[in-house]
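Fold this complex.
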Amino acid sequence: MSKITLTIDEQKIQVEEGMTVLEAAREVGIEIPTLCYHPDLALHGACRVCVVENLANNGLIASCVAPVEEGMEISTRSSRARRARSRNVILLLANHPNDCLGCDRNGTCELQNIAYSLGIRHETVEELAGEKRDLPLDNTGPALKRDPNKCILCGRCVRVCEEVQGVSALQFSKRGFDSIVTTAFDLPQSEINCANCGQCATVCPVGAITEISDIEQVWTALEDEEKHVVVQTAPAIQATIGEEFGLEPGTIVTGKLVAALRKLGFDRVFSTEFSADLTIMEEGYEFLDKIQQGKRLPHITSCCPGWVKFAEHNYADLLELVSTAKSPQQMFSTLSKTYYAEKSKLDPKNIFTVAIMPCTAKKFEKEREELRDSGYQDTDAVLTTRELARMIKEIGLNFNDLADEEFDELMGKSSGAATIFGTTGGVTEAALRTVKEKLTGEPLERLNLGLRGIKETVIEIGDLTINVAVASGLANAAKLLEEVRAGKSKYHFIEVMACPHGCVGGGGQPLPVDNEKKDMRAEGLGSIDQRKYVRKSHENPMIEKLYKEYLGDPLGGKSHHLLHTSYQKRDKN
Amino acid sequence: MKSLEELKELREKLQKDIAMRDDSEKPKIIIGMGTCGIAAGARNILQAVLEEIDKRNLDIVVTQTGCIGMCEKEPLLDVQLPGKKRVTYGNLEVNDVKRIIVEYVINGKIVEDLAIAHFEE
Amino acid sequence: MDHSIYRSHVLICTGTGCVSSGAKNIKVKLEDELARFSLNKEIKIIETGCHGFCEKGPIMIVYPEGVFYCQLEEEDVVTIVEEHLLKGRIVDGLLYKEPLTEESIPAYQDIDFYKKQERIVLENCGKVNPESIGEYIGLGGYEAAGKALTTMTPLEVIETVKQSGLRGRGGGGFLTGLKWQFTHTAKGDKKYVICNADEGDPGAFMDRSILEGDPHRVIEGMIIAAYAIGADEGYVYVRAEYPLAISRLEKAIEDAEELELLGQDLFGSGFNFKLNIKKGAGAFVCGEETALMASIEGKRGMPRPRPPYPSVKGLWGKPTNINNVETYANVPFVIKEGAAAFAAIGTADSKGTKVFALTGKINNTGLVEVPMGITLREIIFDIGGGLTDGKEFKAVQIGGPSGGCITEENLDLPIDYDSLKSIGAMMGSGGMVVMDEKTCMVDVARFFLNFTQNESCGKCTPCREGTKRMLEILNRICEGEAREGDLELLEALAHHIKDTALCGLGQTAPNPVLSTLEYFREEYEAHINEQKCPAGVCNALASSYQIDQAVCVGCGMCVKVCPVDAISGKPKESYDIDAELCISCGACADKCPVDAISQG
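Structure:
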């Protein structure tokens, strides 16, 4: 690669050929506002908010897509550039509801931030007032809702859904001013092939795609004297919720999280990591059983509900390979209304189960008809990390100053293996720790598979050689599954997480986010595993107690009934 | 086509065929069948030509061509009589077909009010 | 025997032939007419035998002049008596005429419409049968391809095309040879050539006519281009609204494959070329090359930023050369006749010819091919025959919705790519819409902007949102509801969109507004400041029509055409228009035979 010399705002710089003007500007600390640009997605060049002036030829260029050229004299600040940039933002605002006060993204909205930093006034927007998009909202859910009127057509959702997830549930439709982002045939959100992963919501710069909120339901339950409200928090939350309160991504705030939940009034504060250990026991034994019985492989994990729905739409023929073990959220909820109810002498009908999840697909999962083994809907409400933060802010807690507290006893203890469920590769590592030790008595070395794309490794367990593949991002998963379908897969064990990076990159996590932040979150979570005294699921004393006192053996009758589930074929579109 | 020579041989053969066709004393009617012609009614003109030929049991070659540019004057119809110059008639209506065939194709007399131009070779 | 002296003798043939064509009745009629004017003492009727001219009967010869009347009808007799026998004026219309020959009608090159044309691309259009590959070959077709593939290297072909000065006929006017060279040089295990036949400008139909009239010429051009750049596969992207062009092209490809002019080892050169047709669904933006390629790939037709240019990263990421139909159709001539022959036509920087589609208020609507450098006056008045109904010329829109209007003052400008650009218009693909004095330029700008607004793909902000706001302003102006500062805002938005839109469609969408603003600003101002549409087109601003009672003859024609029953009155006296009801459509004024109706 050769070097290119250009000037940006009178600074002469040398950068690699092929770099964009935007990247070059950022190298020297010059920030150019962007909307349709996203560092983790293909270049789009549509919003024209990043325009800068090339003084060498008096051209205005979109810096996010324009490659650097020898001799460019870029001004990011010329009056022409600033005026053009503002005018494009004004054009967007002239066709936007501008009801920031009532918007889920108030405070995290990129359009709002840019309008503020460019000093755009209400009057200049009014000058262009005319027709505005006026389309019905889609809140058929159950995980995500879309407000087409807020959409600025930046196409990030379209790109993430196609490029990263390979789902293409969303596309541009119609022309000109009538253009919208919509589903195939404008079908409601509830009837499409969407995995509910929520990656669209994480890349949306405005409030056009957000989670369907359970906050009101949870407040109601908390205020209901009759209800005993049990909350579980997923492993990834402790490494991400701090961002909502100004902390660095990856800052571990487990104790403050527990304290905040108690302050909110939850009757019991438990950890999903407890049931993650349980999942390892069930799934580990299931995998062992498959190997020992010579059943069809690969074994494919099932803890990610986005992945499960994706498989139901696209790989119904391979569903028999997917573990029947419920996800940790669902194991936890079932046990809350059975095991915990029995131990605490509570009527399960009065137990209200809340799950704090990094995920939007979990909102869909809780509604699944298969997941009512307690005799009730096992999970009553799912709150994303963002929703929980909103509740904490609502009661005015100073989160960062809270004194650390511990999870409640019965279903709060966990191993390090359970913690790393929150990142891609974690389930695999956790499961194989148990499998290897059960089979050989030897501990498993740290795998360190990395966080992006498809990772693979070979694990020797005694005389068994296990080929393992780990995929995050559904487009990556699809590549592995196509191989399986074609009969060309060499793998024995495949882990799939719908979201890139796994749950730390989940659709319910704090915004804005990019791959760099996700790396930091994953690193934070990994550090907990290292510090934990118990690092293997089968050594969690509360799990041992659960089997001994309630379930019997892994995969046994009661386990089978309460902790395993089934799947259904769904339409391809 | 295996070589340029082969193409040239084919061309010569085709030209000979065309020449022979001209000697064969068969009049030729060429109808402008571009979209402009069709929009102006060329299909009806073609139909009328075929009916007239059938009715009079004439031995005439009927073929088509594209738009010559005078879309304004469509439908256009050319007549190539043996040994004569090709003549274009335009602004045609179905009733004009009979006149062109009787007066010009059969009797060799230009239909003056419909004729537009002739082709130079 | 009657020995009286007669001043005239009228001979009537009563041979069998003439009798059967009605000579007896003619004679009776003549006797009656002569009696009516008491001419029977002066003029004698003589029956004669057959003159041998039965085919022209009935026949009458008047002496002493010896005037020969033929093919008489009874009413002709009245004319002959009144004019000739009474007043001595010969009735020309009834004289015998020598039969016309082919030569007595003008040759094509002598009629005004063709005199100034120079046909390279359209050479065969309207002459050959487009469905006969034999006719194309018979006229020397595919020899250019044969020559290129067997006697020239790809670089020699590129050099020839460069030397010829051929520029892209799709609108941009980029040097074709240079474009080919880029694609030739680009690294790629596979390359493509694409023919852009997604003609979508309102009033443009050059590409359609070429594909319908001479499809093999385009195929031959593509073969040569593919050979030059090293592509073994090509696509013709043609809109599905051109079914005839598609079927002719399909037939042409089939026939060319049959003769191995497409396929493997063409002309024994080892060069292979496969040609496919891709039907477009009719989105205007798919004429933009990156959107076009997305469409071929099966994606939504949306442009992407360039660079990378198609020559480096095109169809399916491979180096791709895209030219339009007319460009490819020029190539066989360039190769066959040589670069110099082509470069001899045209101006310094624009060589060859250009095909234009003439539409609008012009007498000879149609398709013309003229040498670059011709003036618009020659095209519109000499070739096009001037404006319809003798109206005044106002402007011509050239380059469709991406172009601008040209007024009287530039009619004598020799037109080529650069001269048009210098006056705010563009060559475009070649649509020419002629407008007369009754055309409202604000309305024209609104028409084109409405078109581009509807056809915008919706991807980039300025085009999607900006053209909508411009259109809203234009609507306000035309409806008499313009706001303070609207004109300035319109202009600012126009420049903004031009500056920041992603693709050519958006960047050129404001051109009709900018160019009408430049040449007809006073018309905009009249709409805004005086609430008047000078051309009387914008209904909301048009004042109602009135009937001048002194001129009105009471024919009642106006009543019949009034769509809103605003006209009342008595036949043969006079009529009146109810100003409240009148919608100023002007139908009555157009119909009035005595020009009694005008706008108040």
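Residues 272-293 of chain A form the longest helix (22 residues).
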